[in-house]
């Protein structure tokens, strides 16, 4: 069976790069045939897996400079049954791509909001007057650049090569240590999808809403994990979109949900939550480990 891997397109995105490295790892270490399927948005990428059009999706979930990729969190809250198979951490080096003769000629800069935000200091310093235009991905505007020499896009060096476009500046992210964590997600358990030498899964991700906006609504479920010594590696709130000031919470636990104590903690927090979604347990790997594994 060929595994279809959905990712954010058009070709050249960072998500495609992460998906490609994962694809190489699957084909080389698992002898598993796979194909990459680009989708126009992160929400559509995840929906493709939820609706069975693709078996796996590789989606960005968090960046070291800009924090959570909110499109991913919001789509995950709306969809049912998606499980994280693996988390991959990949370095991100942004470049400014344009057909302009010089940086001073640029009037508009297109990119994914995450990429624009990761470079906001550089943009303010070097081309403060440009108009920033958010796009669904870092590569969505690349085909427009040849027609408009006053336009630029923030994307990767790899994308510039793929589209045969000039790079005017490189390493423009505000902090050189720029990493994005991607989740490899599926609807059903796919045994081949994760490295088998890692015995224990190190992280579990959950999202929940609380029954009422009252004192302790968040503290009570968190206390369940604290009381058995489980560390929280991340907490993020997102608006429920039902009413102003009402939130749902995404948390990452340093724990494996198949361990009895964790399993009972997860059962216990259902008494303090309104809707609880578990995205399962998984390992977090730097991208080099997938490349070395080939
Ligand atoms: O637009 C892309 O190239 C993406 O893969 C999306 C995305 C993101 O949403 O975080 C991925 C990595 C970088 O952090 C910037 C953009």
Automatic annotation (TrEMBL):
<dbReference type="GO" id="GO:0009094">
    <property type="term" value="P:L-phenylalanine biosynthetic process"/>
</dbReference>
<keyword id="KW-0584">Phenylalanine biosynthesis</keyword>
<protein>
    <recommendedName>
        <fullName>Prephenate dehydratase</fullName>
        <ecNumber>4.2.1.51</ecNumber>
    </recommendedName>
</protein>
<keyword id="KW-0057">Aromatic amino acid biosynthesis</keyword>
<feature type="domain" description="ACT">
    <location>
        <begin position="206"/>
        <end position="283"/>
    </location>
</feature>
<dbReference type="GO" id="GO:0005737">
    <property type="term" value="C:cytoplasm"/>
</dbReference>
<keyword id="KW-0028">Amino-acid biosynthesis</keyword>
<keyword id="KW-0456">Lyase</keyword>
<dbReference type="InterPro" id="IPR018528">
    <property type="entry name" value="Preph_deHydtase_CS"/>
</dbReference>
<dbReference type="InterPro" id="IPR001086">
    <property type="entry name" value="Preph_deHydtase"/>
</dbReference>
<dbReference type="InterPro" id="IPR008242">
    <property type="entry name" value="Chor_mutase/pphenate_deHydtase"/>
</dbReference>
<dbReference type="InterPro" id="IPR002912">
    <property type="entry name" value="ACT_dom"/>
</dbReference>
<comment type="pathway">
    <text>Amino-acid biosynthesis; L-phenylalanine biosynthesis; phenylpyruvate from prephenate: step 1/1.</text>
</comment>
<dbReference type="GO" id="GO:0004664">
    <property type="term" value="F:prephenate dehydratase activity"/>
</dbReference>
<dbReference type="Pfam" id="PF01842">
    <property type="entry name" value="ACT"/>
</dbReference>
<dbReference type="InterPro" id="IPR045865">
    <property type="entry name" value="ACT-like_dom_sf"/>
</dbReference>
<feature type="site" description="Essential for prephenate dehydratase activity">
    <location>
        <position position="180"/>
    </location>
</feature>
<dbReference type="Pfam" id="PF00800">
    <property type="entry name" value="PDT"/>
</dbReference>
<feature type="domain" description="Prephenate dehydratase">
    <location>
        <begin position="4"/>
        <end position="187"/>
    </location>
</feature>
């Amino acid at each position: 069976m060929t595994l279809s891997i959905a990712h954010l397109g058009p070709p050249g995105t960072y998500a495609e790069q992460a998906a490609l490295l994962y694809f190489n790892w699957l084909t080389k270490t698992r002898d598993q045939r796979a194909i990459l399927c680009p989708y126009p948005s992160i929400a559509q990428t995840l929906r493709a897996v939820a609706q069975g059009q693709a078996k796996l999706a590789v989606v960005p979930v968090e960046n070291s400079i800009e924090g959570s990729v909110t499109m991913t969190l919001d789509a995950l809250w709306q969809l049912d049954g998606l499980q994280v198979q693996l988390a991959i951490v990949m370095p991100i080096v942004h470049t400014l791509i344009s057909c302009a003769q010089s940086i001073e000629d640029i009037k508009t800069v297109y990119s994914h909001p995450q990429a624009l935000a990761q470079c906001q200091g550089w943009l303010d310093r070097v081309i403060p007057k440009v108009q920033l235009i958010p796009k669904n991905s870092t590569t969505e505007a690349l085909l427009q650049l040849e027609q408009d020499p006053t336009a630029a896009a923030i994307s990767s060096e790899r994308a510039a090569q793929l589209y045969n476009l000039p790079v005017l500046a490189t390493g423009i992210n505000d902090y050189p240590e720029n990493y994005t964590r991607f989740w490899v997600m599926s609807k059903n358990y796919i045994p081949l999808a994760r490295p088998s030498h890692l015995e224990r899964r190190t992280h579990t991700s959950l999202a929940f809403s609380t029954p009422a906006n009252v004192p302790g609504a968040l503290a009570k479920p968190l206390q369940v994990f604290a009381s058995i010594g489980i560390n929280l590696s991340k907490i993020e709130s997102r608006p429920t979109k039902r009413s102003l000031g009402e939130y749902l919470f995404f948390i990452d636990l340093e724990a494996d949900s198949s361990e009895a104590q964790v399993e009972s903690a997860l059962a216990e927090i259902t008494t303090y939550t309104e809707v609880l979604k578990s995205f399962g347990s998984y390992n977090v790997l730097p991208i080099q480990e997938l490349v070395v594994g080939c």
